From TrEMBL:
Residues that span the membrane, as ranges: 6-23, 194-212, 218-238, 250-271, 283-300, 434-456, 462-485, 801-820
Native species: Bifidobacterium vansinderenii
The EC number(s) this enzyme carries: 7.2.2.8
A single GO molecular function term of this UniProt record: ATP hydrolysis activity
Protein name in the entry: P-type Cu(+) transporter
Family recorded in the similarity comment: Belongs to the cation transport ATPase (P-type) (TC 3.A.3) family. Type IB subfamily.
A GO cellular component entry from the record: plasma membrane
Keyword set, alphabetical order: ATP-binding, Cell membrane, Copper, Copper transport, Ion transport, Membrane, Metal-binding, Nucleotide-binding, Translocase, Transmembrane, Transmembrane helix, Transport
Region span, Disordered: 131-181
């Protein structure tokens, strides 16, 4: 009968526990007022309410009222919105986000222990709310671009006050200062509580465990009371609150376990006659020791959390406090936050640059390693762009401030790093699923362990039952499980930033570890991206008039932003001597004239009217479309044109065709030098088992020559920008995980299509919208470092999860007593408490090993990649032409069908399937989901990202059709 009653009670309690913890929770609806939804969320052992309903498309103001201290709830993280907001203890913090898409979005504490959910419903008031919000808040239109499709987040304010940062100051800096102060205050408080707990627990521990002296139960009680009342008060307050909110976590488990031990000990002290003679031993030493060890773990976690912001603090610390500014002829030293756009900043030797700008006089070398990770100083002269927080060398110069405060490169880097650190890696989903049922499962195990020991255990049954239940509750460590992934991600993304690698999200970092194929654009990626004119072979009546023809080509190209066009313009303006052109003649023309008409044909070239001449510069496809013929005057043939193209291509030059007034005039050859470290980086990728592919719009011969020089076996040539994404998709269809590395807007479709997009930055170009990872120093070595760091991070996360799962998987059964039949011993609750603290310590220590990551010391690894079938092929569009057949059909004087596919000079072409085409990058865009749109001359243009929209805004005439 006793057995039936005991097991029946355990079953009923278990059912109650399951209902209490796992039953659906009632959602609280945010209240709409003045175009903004608002809800107050109490933070004490959980979030109340933990389920929030709100409308899409309307700003949602979340007022977090944190009613506790401790590290666990000191932050709230919204990974889908890129938000990691500090919540000061016993204060209110307001966070405004705008969820644009209906759906379910989770949020959690910084330790990933407390969880809540946002249910976003289709909006009914979104239009009116947007109008009201725009009228009430000017910065509503300047929301962060980093939040992704889910929505965006505005700045937070503490105590209900709108503590906006001063004009020109980056809000992240003031936020970080507040976080540092709060973290330091929490650590000081934890340290004091730990000291008190240790001092009062030690006498009880020595008496009970080592029997050095006898200490009556009443004295043990008096010594432990300060530990419970003062040191353990936050643990109990948070733990019981978490149970009430049906969101139990570490504090709840410890609270239940130690409370059971304390109450049992209190009965032993106050009414021992209620218990059998052989079970009248109190467990005060276990209560005190467990609380002390819990505080040790919390202190370690607090230090770990503070350490994860080290990279961001180091970046912000690079910013100087003052700036020397010249105003009205007087040089004055002012706070850096008082610098305005347009101010003239004076830099002396050794000075740290306060803001971004453009050099107007003087020259020097500048150390940009703190931003780009590149240690070699960069020479600066008039016209050069400079970046704030970099360090001047021995020269002096003056520069005009162009970007200040939150617009500087440094501020954008800080924002990107913080966004990445608040994102959630896919590998974390397993831990999240386990965490959701972890605490209820532990409570159930404790209940049934207690029941089985009570029914089937040896005497004294009550003691064995109590010890096993308390040990199970205390040894379980959900903290280790919650910390395993986010701690490694935070440290890794911060480390990447110090190496000049900006990772947008945890997902990008995780995917980078799976890459088996790296696709490289040629110009600006493998090569320097600053081509030079190296050949100018003229035909027909233009013999002897090379300088005049070059000036004509330069004037036609002046409105183009393409690097190849810039090479032609630069050669004409500087009068540089190249093959086929007299240096004096090049610069002796009438000067630069603007083209009367200018049209850029994406992926083909340009057509312009200059000085009464119709000038075409581009590839053979463009020349074919305009029915260009061979001139008769010099008796030259198509074979002569082929010979010129082949000669330049064999040397690695990029040949282009120029036609004037319907007749071929010249073959223009441009060359771009290979970056010094490209060959080494490609060799490093191949050594890791990663296939490397060159994907370029250049002709096959040129591409093959460059590929041979840098060690690339697989070449896909003559691909227009809009077809690059198709080639990426083809590789993915073959089972490859593809990383695309590009440097310009014309690579945007391929960067988006790839599993991971790497953007080659230029030191001042922080964020390319379509890229997952930005390499600030523009070096291919950064791709190798990023992939190596991704592998190290995922290996570290795997180890952390192994520690967490392995510890709990072994510790909980041992605490329940599975070893008792073999050893005759139960796990002492104090040992369980020590093991609990050690589990968190092991995860924290292991994650911190990532701080020592160095590109020079990488653990060897190899990727198993599928081998590609062909070494060299044409792209799907440019490959439609056959040189041999077309040249035979064309005849000696007809340019139609000639396969002289010079480098496409501009961006991608038309869209497909009823969609609109981004006029900047050529990517197909669904108007319903376009990232941005613009009205110009009565026509609507749609864009894939904010970067393309910004480029259109600078010169809409160039791209409007």
């Amino acid at each position: 009968m006793i057995i039936v009653i005991a097991l029946g009670v355990a079953a009923l309690v278990s059912a109650g526990v399951l209902w209490f913890f796992l039953a659906p929770r009632k959602a609280a609806r945010a209240v709409m007022a003045d175009g903004v939804q608002e809800i107050v969320v109490a933070v004490k052992g959980g979030y109340d309410p933990a389920v929030i309903e709100a409308e899409a498309g309307t700003p949602l103001r979340l007022v977090f009222d944190r009613q506790e201290g401790g590290e666990c709830s000191s932050h709230v993280v919204f990974p889908d919105f890129g938000v990691d907001q500090a919540l000061p203890a016993f204060r209110t913090t307001t966070l405004t986000i705008t969820p644009n898409e209906p759906g379910e979005y989770g949020f959690a504490c910084g330790m990933n222990m407390l969880h809540g959910t946002l249910h976003i419903l289709p909006g009914k008031h979104s239009s009116a709310a947007r109008m009201t919000a725009a009228a009430n808040s000017e910065h509503a239109k300047n929301a962060s671009d980093n939040a992704g499709a889910a929505g965006h987040a505005d700045t937070a304010a503490a105590d209900g006050a709108n503590n906006a940062a001063p004009a020109g100051q980056n809000p992240a800096e003031s936020t970080l200062t507040d976080e540092e102060e709060n973290a330091a205050r929490e650590i000081r408080t934890l340290r004091m509580r730990l000291i008190v707990a240790a001092v009062f627990t030690l006498p009880v521990f020595l008496s009970a465990m080592f029997h050095l002296y006898h200490l009556a139960p009443i004295w043990q009680l008096l010594l432990i009371l300060p530990v419970i009342v003062y040191s353990g008060r936050p643990i109990y307050a948070t733990g019981w609150s978490a149970i009430i909110h049906r969101a139990p976590e570490m504090n709840a488990l410890v609270s239940v376990g130690t409370a059971a031990a304390f109450l049992y000990s209190l009965v032993v002290t106050a009414a021992p006659n209620l218990l059998p003679q052989d079970v009248r031993e109190p467990y005060y030493e276990a209560v005190g020791t467990i609380i002390t060890l819990m505080l040790v773990g919390q202190l370690l976690e607090a230090h770990a959390r503070a350490g994860t912001g080290e990279a961001v603090r180091a970046l912000i610390g690079l910013k100087p406090k003052t700036a020397r500014v010249e105003r009205d002829g007087v040089i004055t030293e002012i706070p850096v936050d008082d610098v305005h756009v347009g101010d003239i900043v004076v830099i002396r030797p050794g000075d740290k640059l306060p803001v971004d700008g453009e050099v107007i006089s003087g020259n020097s070398s500048v150390d940009e390693s703190m931003v780009t990770g590149e240690s070699i100083p960069v020479e600066k002269a008039a016209g050069s762009q400079v970046t704030g927080a970099t360090v001047n060398g021995t020269g002096t110069f003056r520069y005009r401030a162009t970007r200040i405060g939150a617009d500087t490169v440094l501020a954008q880097i800080v924002a990107l790093v913080k966004t990445a650190q608040s994102s959630k890696a896919p590998v974390q989903r397993l831990a999240d699923r386990v965490s959701a049922i972890f605490v209820p499962a532990v409570v159930l195990i404790a209940i049934w362990a207690c029941a089985f020991w009570w029914v089937f255990g040896p005497e004294p049954k009550i003691v064995h039952a109590l010890v096993s239940a308390v040990s199970v509750l205390v040894i379980a460590c959900p903290c280790a499980l919650g910390l395993a992934t986010p701690l490694s991600i935070t440290i890794a993304t911060g480390k990447a930033a110090t190496l000049g690698i900006l990772v947008r999200s945890a997902q990008a970092l995780e995917t980078a570890a799976d890459v088996d194929t790296v696709v490289l654009d040629k110009t600006g990626t493998i090569t320097q991206g600053t081509p030079q004119l190296v050949g100018f072979d003229v035909f027909g009546a233009w013999h002897g008039r090379e300088g005049e023809l070059l000036a004509l080509a330069a004037d036609a190209e002046r409105n183009s932003e393409h690097p190849l066009a810039a090479a032609i313009v630069r050669a004409a303006d500087e009068g540089s001597a190249v093959a086929g052109i007299d240096a004096v003649g090049a610069g002796s023309d009438d000067g630069a004239d603007d083209a009367a008409e200018f049209t850029a044909i994406p992926g083909r070239g340009i057509v312009a009217t200059v000085r009464g001449h119709v000038v075409i510069v581009g590839n053979a496809e463009l020349v074919d479309d305009h029915d260009v013929g061979m001139p008769d005057a010099a008796g030259e043939s198509v074979d002569d044109v082929f010979a010129s193209i082949d000669r330049h291509a064999a040397l690695g030059h990029t040949p282009m065709l120029m036609a004037v007034d319907g007749l071929l005039a010249a073959v223009i050859a441009v060359a771009d030098t290979v970056k010094p470290d490209s060959k080494q980086a490609i060799a490093a990728l191949r050594a890791r088992g990663i296939d490397v592919v060159m994907l370029t719009g250049d002709n096959q011969d040129t591409a093959r020559a460059i590929a041979h020089d840098v060690g690339v076996d697989h070449v896909i040539a003559e691909v227009r920008p809009d077809a690059k994404a198709d080639e990426i998709a083809r590789l993915q269809a073959d089972g490859h995980v593809v990383a695309m590395v590009g440097d310009g807007i014309n690579d945007a479709p391929a960067l988006v299509r790839a599993n991971v997009g790497f953007a080659i930055g230029g030191g001042t170009d922080v964020a390319i919208e379509s890229a997952d990872i930005t390499l600030m120093n523009g070096s291919l070595a950064g791709v190798v470092t990023a992939i190596d760091l991704a592998h190290a991070t995922m290996r570290n996360i795997g180890q952390n999860l192994g520690f967490a799962f392995g510890y709990n998987g072994i510790g909980i059964p041992v605490a329940a007593g599975v070893l008792y039949p073999f050893t005759g011993m139960l796990l002492n609750p104090m040992i369980a408490g020590a093991a609990m603290a050690f589990s968190s310590l092991s995860v924290v220590t292991n994650a911190n090993r990532l701080r020592a990551f160095s590109p020079e010391r990488v653990r060897p690894y190899r990727i198993s990649a599928r081998k590609m079938k062909a070494n060299t092929r044409k792209g799907t569009i440019m490959g439609l032409f056959s040189r041999k057949n077309d040249s035979q059909d064309a005849g000696a004087h007809d340019m139609h069908g000639m396969d002289m596919h010079a480098h496409g000079m501009h961006h991608a072409g038309a869209g497909a399937g009823g969609s609109e085409t981004d006029p900047i990058c050529g990517m197909s865009v669904n108007p319903a989901t376009a990232a941005a749109k613009r009205e110009y001359n009565g026509k609507t243009y749609y864009f894939c990202g904010a970067g393309c929209a910004a480029a259109f805004d600078k010169n809409p005439e160039q791209y409007a059709k």
